[in-house]
Design brief:
The chain is of the alpha/beta class. Helices cover 40% and strands 17% of the residues. The longest helix has 28 residues.
Length: 418
């Protein structure tokens, strides 16, 4: 009798467990998990935290509109803490353990290079939202930031033009890792093709988190005093931009004397800086918060509303910037591709991504190239204003097709598509 009761109890427990497992599986099937892989601590948190918030805002927006294929998106947020090997570990966790359908993340090229083997091995899908050095084209990555011909080359062409000050000497100043060094290799080749002598190019690098720029600013002042009009091209990344710009102001190095054009400094990075001494210095991007159009007005309002809803620090002072726009566009394009493919399967989504379009906050309809996994993007050059925003001083008339493999590097002519 006791044995019969025990068997019944066991059967009942198994039934309850089965119901629970079915319920859990049903709940899991009702959502699509997406990974968010950005540094929320360490030297890159100054730039990447806002991209995490943008991704969460976009996911919230998509869910409010019915989700993707009738399913809600479920964000899985991890913090690789500006630790490049940890990016690979967290990427593996997202794909293998959390079973995300896609990952939106990385900022520095060293973090992207760290995760690439993981995405290739596990056939995962990464959307990378930041300008970079090119010289790469991966099946498992969609690049929604700029290639060099969509940012670095136009910026230097502008500096060399009459409108940009007719610069003849150039300081290539960056953080010591792959993006600045490769970008500057391309820029050196470009400058030499324009007749700039080796003696008229100064190149220097500082480590991540560097904070003392007195010596380097002094070297730049000396270099600039040797005759020809000089400009600085900055590929400094992360929180080092704050002491760099502070020292620039302290040294009285004004834009009228030695203009600085930055490729990794936007509205978010300038929030921690007194921008009054920096008025007139430049940044080259594919989007600025100050652009006037209906799409951007809506985008800025969404983010400001999100900041209040999410109780972000200093919610009344939040800004938008280029990588935030690239994050927003990338998530919406992924949604469109999933719905076209009727699947979150990596290979099917990759096939559906080519040719996707989206009316972006930049004011242009952006297109995902059918062969090279890069967005066609407009280029803007902006001058820093006293309020930390930018006045656009130059722009392209239409979006530019990316050249992932720079034509200024020998042997790249045949590498422009997968």
């Amino acid at each position: 009798m006791k044995r019969r009761s025990f068997v019944k109890a066991l059967a009942l427990s198994a039934s309850i467990a089965a119901i629970g497992a079915t319920s859990f599986a049903a709940h899991a099937a009702d959502t699509i998990k997406v990974g968010i892989l950005h540094s929320l601590s360490g030297t890159m948190a100054i730039s990447e935290t806002a991209l995490k918030e943008t991704a969460l805002m976009t996911i919230d927006e998509i869910n409010a509109a019915g989700g993707v294929m009738g399913k809600k998106l479920e964000p899985v947020v991890v913090d690789p803490a500006s630790n490049w090997p940890l990016f690979a570990e967290k990427a593996r966790q997202l794909i293998s353990q959390d079973k995300v359908a896609v990952v939106f993340g990385c900022w520095t090229s060293v973090s992207r290079k760290s995760v690439l083997p993981v995405f290739k091995e596990l056939n995962g899908l990464l959307f990378y939202p930041v300008q970079y050095e090119g010289e790469e084209l991966e099946k498992n990555v969609f690049y929604t930031g700029a290639a060099p011909n969509q940012q670095a080359i136009p910026a230097v062409e502008y500096l060399m033009s009459k409108d940009g000050g007719s610069a003849k000497r150039f300081v290539l100043l960056g953080t010591d890792y792959v993006y600045p060094r490769t970008t500057n290799k391309i820029l050196r080749a470009f400058l030499k093709s324009k007749g700039v002598a080796e003696a008229d190019i100064m190149e220097d690098y500082t480590p991540f988190g560097h904070s003392d720029y007195q010596t380097i600013i002094a070297k730049i002042k000396k270099f600039a005093s040797e005759g020809k009009k000089t400009a600085v091209i900055s590929t400094i990344n992360g929180d080092s931009n704050v002491p760099f710009y502070k020292e620039l102001g302290n040294a009285g190095l004004k834009a009228t004397d030695v203009p600085v054009v930055a490729f990794s400094v936007g509205e978010e990075e300038l929030r921690g800086v007194d921008t009054k001494p920096l008025v007139g210095h430049l940044a080259a991007w594919n989007y600025f918060m100050s652009l006037k159009n209906a799409e951007n007005d809506a985008f800025v309002k969404k983010y400001k509303d999100w900041a209040v809803k999410a109780k972000l620090p200093n919610a009344d002072k939040v800004v938008t910037n280029d990588p935030m726009e690239a994050t927003y566009v990338g998530i919406h394009m992924w949604k469109q591709a999933v719905e076209k493919a009727k699947s979150t399967d990596t290979d099917k989504v990759i096939a559906a991504m080519g040719g996707q379009t989206y009316k972006a906050p930049s004011g242009f309809t952006l297109t995902m190239d059918k062969t090279n996994h890069h967005l066609h993007k407009p280029v803007y050059i902006g001058e820093i204003r006293a309020d930390g925003q930018f006045n656009v001083v130059w722009k392209t008339k239409e979006p530019i097709r990316a050249q992932p493999w720079s034509p200024f590097i020998p042997g790249n002519e045949s590498k422009q598509k997968l």
